[in-house]
Amino acid sequence: MRESSQHPPSHLPQAAALADHARQARQWQLTDLFRQDASRAARFTLEAAGLCLDFSKNHVTEQTVALLTEFAQARGVETLRDAMFRGERINLSEQRAVLHTALRMPPDARLMVDGEELVDEIQRGLRRMESFAQQVRHGQWKGYTGREITDVVNIGIGGSDLGPAMTCAAMRHYSHPRLRFHFLSNVDGHATVATLAALDPATTLFIISSKSFTTQETMLNAHAARRWFLAHGKEKDLAAHFVAVSTNTSAVTAFGIAADNMFPFRDWVGGRFSIWSSIGLSLLVAIGADHFRAFLAGAHAMDEHFQHAPLHSNLPVMLALIAFWYREYFGTSSQLIAPYHEDLRHFPAYLQQLEMESNGKSVTRKGEPTPMKTSAVIWGSTGTNNQHAYFQMLHQGSDLIPVDFIAALKPHHDLIDQQRALLANCFAQAEALMNGVQDASLPTHRLFPGNRPSTMLLMDQLTPASLGALIALYEHKTFVLGALWDINSFDQWGVELGKTMALRILVELEGSESAGQHDSSTNALIARARSALK
Q1: Full-prediction pTM beyond 0.85?
Q2: Which domains does the chain have, with CATH numbers?
Q3: Which helix (H) or strand (E) holds 461?
Q4: What is the pLDDT of residues 156-197, one digit of tens each?
C-alpha cells in the first residue's frame, strides 16, 4: 500500500494554502456569510443513508471545502480508505486488518482477504447468534427452575460495554417487552452489588464479553456473578445462565459455560468497532433478528456512501474535515456532542472511546512525532438538560467549542407538543450560538459574542437503520481524522499500559509482594490501602 504522505504536512502546498486561508477565515462572521449567500444552507447540506448533515453554521466557504478536500487527497485519505475496505493490514503496530465494515455487508456480498472468503463465515456466526436470541426472546431458553429469562446482564468493559449499553438504550422502543437489560463494566464492587441486588438468579442470563476471557475487570465481575448464582443454583445449572463472547474455549468451559454457547469474533474487529460482531449479542436479543439486520444495513449504507461519494459531498469526510479545521487552525481543544434525544443519552460516552482512544496519539504511522494536535476532547449529554448546565459556557465562555447537534424529527410517542419544544430548543441553540446578542443598550453581562459554530445532524426517526448509519458515520469520521493526522487509529497502547501497571499493584495490594517499587506517593497510597483492606 502506498504511504499516505512522504513529507510532514507543513511541506505540502495544500497545507500552506490552508494556513493562508485560515488567517482570513478566523476574521469571518457567520452572520455575514449567511447575509452574503441566500443559498448557503442548501449548498452546505448533505444527505445519505437516511441522515441529513447541515454544516452551514461553520466557518467555511466553498473555497474552504475545496482546500480541505485537496489536503485530504494529498494526505492519502482515499488510498487508506480503499486499503481498509480491501482488508489490508492498515493497523501497522499490530499487523492487523481493520474489517468491522465486513460485519455489516449483505449476505450475498463477497470479500476475499488473504485467500479467505469472509462473508459466509460472518453470516454463519450471525445465524448462530440469531438462533440463540430467538430462543431467549420466545421463552424457549429456560433458567434452571424452568422459568423464562427476564433479565440479561452484559458483563464487559470498553467497547464490550459501551457499544451494547448505548445501542440497547437507543433501541429501547424496539426492545422485547419481557426482557430487561443491565450492563456491568466497572470493577467497583458497588456497581456489582447494585446490579445483582435487583435480579432473580432463576431468570437471569449473563453474557460475558471478553475475547481473551482474561480481562481483569470483566472476569472479576463475571466471577462475582458466578458466586452470586451458585448461592442459589448448582454448577450444572451454570450453562443455562451464562454464555460467552470470547475466543478462549478452554477458559470459557472451565468457567462452566458450554462451548456451544460461546460466540467468537476475529482479531480484525477492534473493541470500539465491535458492536457489529458477537459483542452485539445483547442488542440482538433485545431487538430481534430483523431489526438487528436493519441496524447492520443502515451502517452498510453509510459504508457505501463513504466509499463512493466524492470527498466534497461525503458526510463522514466533511464531518472530519470540519473537526480538523477547528482543531488545527482555530486552536479548539474540545468538541461537544449534543443529542436532542433521550434514547441517545449514552452516545457522547460512546464517541469518547471511539474518537479519543482511536486518535489520542502523538506519533505518526511511521513512529515519528506528529507535528499536529490530534484528538480533541469529546464530551456532551442530552438536550435540553445540557442547556441548564454547560451551555452558559458555550454562549459566553472564553473558549470556542464546536457543537454537533443530533436530533430525530419524529418521536416514537404521541407527545407531539413536547417533541416540538425539544426541536425548537435544539434549533434555537444553534441559531443563538451563531447570532449572539449585540445591543448597546444592554449591560455587558447580557451580551453574547455569537459567531460560534455548530453542525446539525438530523434523521427522520431513531430506528435501527438510522442508528446504524449514525454510528458508522462517526466511525468513518474518526478514520478520516486519523488519516489526516497520519496516525494509527486502530491500536490503544495507552490503555494497555494502565492495565499492566494495575496488575502489578494488585499483587502488592493482596500482600504477596512488599511495596517499595514505586514513587513515594504511590508507595504511600498502596500502604494505606493495604492497611484498610486487612
Answers
A1: yes
A2: 33-74+309-436+447-485 (3.40.50.10490), 100-285 (3.40.50.10490), 493-532 (1.10.1390)
A3: strand 454-461
A4: 999 999 999 999 999 999 999 999 999 999 999 999 999 999
